[in-house]
Amino acid sequence: MAKLGPDNPRVIGAVAVADFLGIKVPSNTSACKVAEAIRCKLAANCEQHIDELEKQVARLQSQLAAQQAQSNRKQLTLRQGNALACAQRDNAIRVASKAIQQRNDVLELLSRSHSARQAGPSQGAVAIKLLPCRGEPVPPVQESCHCQQTQLAVSIAGRP
């Protein structure tokens, strides 16, 4: 075994590396013991570095999972908002369609009423169609057309 000494280059190199790593080497230590101390120090440094890297990986994975969860919540909120907006749009279209149909029915009624007035009293009464609102039953309708007076009188549920 090579002992520490000023003339042994292996020992001088090992001592230089040991000094660089912060290892104190006694003067009469063999080169093998210095090499073993260097290996232990490097292994400890590697273990410490690996532990730090594992902690960083765990922290980054946690951040990624949190960001993914936040992204999923945002997408879900957007999908729910879009579904609500679509439902509201569809409902508005249905309401508008019913309103257009009712307007067309009123225009048809007015057209028939005008035709009946021009035709004279022999044509009889004009039929009025009331559309139910949201599934409610249609109230009883009494109708009459007094064409001689050119007046249309309609009473709904007993009210003139």
Question: What is the strand and helix layout of this fold?
Answer:
Blueprint: H1 9-21, H2 31-119, E1 141-146, E2 151-156
Antiparallel strand pairs: 1-2
Helix pairs in contact: 1-2
Q: Sheet bearing the most strands, described? A: 2 strands, antiparallel
SSE run: HHEE
Can you tell me the number of structural domains?
A: 1
The count of β-strands is 2
Work out the helix count.
2
Percent of residues in helices comes to: 55-70%
Rounded radius of gyration (Å): 48 Å
Spatial order of the strands forming the largest sheet: 1-2
Task: Provide the β-strand percentage band.
Answer: 5-15%
Distance from first to last alpha carbon? 126 Å
Mean pLDDT figure: 75
Q: Low-confidence parts lasting 5 or more residues at pLDDT below 50?
A: 141-160
Structural class: mainly alpha
The best one-word shape is: rod-shaped
Structure description:
The protein is mainly α and 160 residues long. It has one domain (9-156). 64% of the residues lie in helices and 8% in strands. The chain contains 2 helices and 2 strands; from the N terminus they run H-H-E-E. It has a two-stranded antiparallel ribbon with strand order 1-2. Helix 1 (9-21) packs across helix 2 (31-119). The longest helix has 89 residues, at 31-119. The N and C termini lie far apart (126 Å). The model is unreliable at 141-160 (pLDDT under 50).
